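Hi team,

Below is the intake form for DUF4307 domain-containing protein from Micromonospora auratinigra. Please confirm the fields before the structure is written into the shared record.

FORM ID: S-0412
PROTEIN: DUF4307 domain-containing protein
ORGANISM: Micromonospora auratinigra
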Amino acid sequence: MSETHATVNPGAPVFPPGRYGRRREPGRRRPVLRALLVVALLAALGLGAAKLYSQYGDPDYRAEVITYTGITDSRVLVDFRVTVPPGGSATCLLRARAHDGAEVGHSEVTVTAGPGRRHVTARHEVPTTARPFIGEVLRCRPAG
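The structure came back. Fields below:
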């Protein structure tokens, strides 16, 4: 006997028997499979991030200001130390700022470590357009 409008709840679709196969159970999910896929995706993203950081990150180039001296109306001498890979070289950007924080001069300098050495100590004069208050190293990157 086929279903009629009198035996079916209003709003429910009516399908001919045997025509569309067996219907799936509602609410049947696979949480373990979904969790494994999320874990695999996160692991792949983590490995990709680690590879890119090791390839393009430059944690070996660190600079620190030792002192800044020789302050006049037109210059400041900056003594700084740079950590580089053994025997490597770095290009550092030095900056001089006035008392109000405005940049009054900057200079780029390349330093090279001796064979087998990782630390370079250098002194560089930064020319300025006004009297500086401080001399600093903004960043160092591989020379080239």
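SUMMARY LINE: Residues 31-56 form the longest helix (26 residues).

Thanks, M.
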